[in-house]
Write a structure and sequence with these properties.
about 140 residues, mainly alpha, Multiheme cytochrome fold, about 0% strand
């Protein structure tokens, strides 16, 4: 029993370390080059590459939470989901944001553009619009 618990603990630690690897910049797992390696993301990477955000931010800056653990967990989850969809050929024809990803993107808009948003506040509160609903054409037009 002790040996099995040691193996489980080792696997948990290994899994946690692998999850944290999603946040190592040198691996480029948040970069458009990596995200664009999947044909399903061609349009998104193309529109991002021609946007003003391409000079200042990578895909993960907008689409992942910025905490080390929360960002790693979210990137590992969404990355695993995306790989599963590609392998099983179940990638949706139109990639849409989930409720959780909308909140992540909104928080990242506020984090980067806090100076502008300081006077306005979080536009999504009380049923309001997310930043990207009005400013969608800045990065991904559709």
């Amino acid at each position: 029993m002790r040996k099995m618990l040691e193996w489980i603990a080792a696997l948990v630690v290994l899994g946690f370390c692998m999850m944290l690897m999603t946040r190592i910049p040198a691996l480029g797992l948040s970069e458009a080059k990596f995200c664009g390696s999947c044909h399903a993301m061609d349009y998104e990477v193309s529109t991002y590459s021609h946007s003003s955000h391409a000079r200042e931010a990578n895909c993960g800056d907008c689409h992942d939470p910025h905490g080390l653990v929360t960002g790693s967990m979210y990137a590992a989850y969404t990355g695993s989901r995306d790989v599963y969809r590609v392998v099983t050929n179940t990638t949706p024809a139109e990639i849409r944001t989930t409720s959780l990803s909308k909140k992540v993107i909104q928080n990242n808009c506020l984090r980067c553009h806090g100076d502008i948003m300081g006077d306005i506040g979080d536009t999504s509160k009380n049923g309001g619009a997310y930043c990207f609903q009005c400013h969608r054409n800045i990065v991904h037009p559709k």
